[in-house]
Amino acid sequence: MSDAYHDGGPPQTGLILGKFLPPHCGHQYLFDFARAYVPHLTVLVCSLQREPIAGELRHRWVREMCPDAAVLHVTDENPSEPHEHPDFWDVWIATVRQCLPGGPDVVFTSEAYGDELARRLGAQHVVVDRARELVPVSGTQIRDQPLAYWRYLPPCVRPHFVKRVCLFGPESTGKTTLCRRLAEHYDTVWVSEYARGYLDHKASPCEMTDVAYIARGQAAAEDALARQANRVLFCDTDVLTTMLYSDLYYGSCPDRVRQAAEQRHYDLYLLNDVDVPWVADPQRDMPHRREELRDRWLQALAARGRPHTLVRGSWEERFTIACEAVGRLLGTDRV
């Protein structure tokens, strides 16, 4: 403890430690409470290799949620419960001392272990919402049902759990209209086709050198809006589409775009069929190859084992098919 605290002055240093698996709004309240209580706060993000969410990712999340604290990532393979190791407390106190040699004045927790941890560190234990009345959620509940507890996920954590739905298929099949309508129906946001805005403002036709910029912009727009999504994010195209068009027009594709197309994850593809009228557009030039391109797009999904639903029929039939597929994805009957 600091000398000022021993002499009756206000506490200066605080400690929070946890797995934050994942961090949620209850943790945000804990961080904010502690930051208002002491001027110097240390947060230890403790992770094990076997845990379902990477410790490095959780560390980044907590750093964003608690930017003015010292947020440290602890990767010691320490026991999780006292019964797992006869020297459980000695192991953990050594870990804390290594990160915070002088020890904290205050330990902040919402857990039963706080009393013993604080006693062994010679610190005061400040309990924060032990009953979970102010923010009634736990990491276990979120891991089991992330969409049901969506309101308790901080914006930085939401992209990890959001369901991503890609509107897929050749040109002039109503992808943008359907994407916008689905986003409105599910009270969420949608990602427009980055290539259209990019090429609309380009003085010359699309070239091979544009492909990497289009792919990067599409991915960046999606990742940015995933933070604002309400459980599901609708994407009007994806980087796989960029790759397919690059191969089609230029006979090749930049390696980094091809790699991104293989790595980016979507929970559902809505493949739009070509059974709707062609609408001419300055950026559309293949009305005679619509069936061929639909088959290419379908083969691209099948070859990669990506989940997809064929959307066809009238505009209302397409909307109904899409809602049924999204409802199954979200585990709801909403259509």
What would you note in describing this structure?
With 335 residues, the chain is an alpha/beta fold. The protein has 2 domains: 142 residues, HUPs (Rossmann fold), CATH 3.40.50.620; 168 residues, 3-Layer(aba) Sandwich (Rossmann fold), CATH 3.40.50.300. The protein has 14 helices and 10 strands. The chain has a 5-stranded parallel sheet, sandwiched between helices. It has a 5-stranded parallel sheet with strand order 7-8-6-9-10, with helices on both faces. Helix 11 runs antiparallel to helix 12.
Q: What is the molecular shape? A: elongated
Q: Helicity range of the residues?
A: 40-55%
Radius of gyration: 25 Å
Largest sheet: 5 strands, parallel
Task: Give the helices and strands as they follow along the chain.
Answer: HEHEHEHEHEHHEHEHHEHHEHEH
What is the structural class? Answer: alpha/beta
Number of helices: 14
Question: What's the CATH H-level superfamily name of the largest domain?
Answer: P-loop containing nucleotide triphosphate hydrolases
User: What strand line-up does the widest sheet have?
Assistant: 3-2-1-4-5
Mean pLDDT: 92
- What oligomeric state do these chains adopt? single chain
CATH class annotation of the largest domain: Alpha Beta
CATH architecture term of the largest domain: 3-Layer(aba) Sandwich
Low-confidence stretches: none
By CATH, the topology of the largest domain is: Rossmann fold
User: Domains counted in the coordinates: how many?
Assistant: 2
Instruction: State the separation between the terminal residues, measured CA to CA.
Output: 59 Å
Q: Note the beta-strand portion.
A: 5-15%
How many strands in all?
Answer: 10
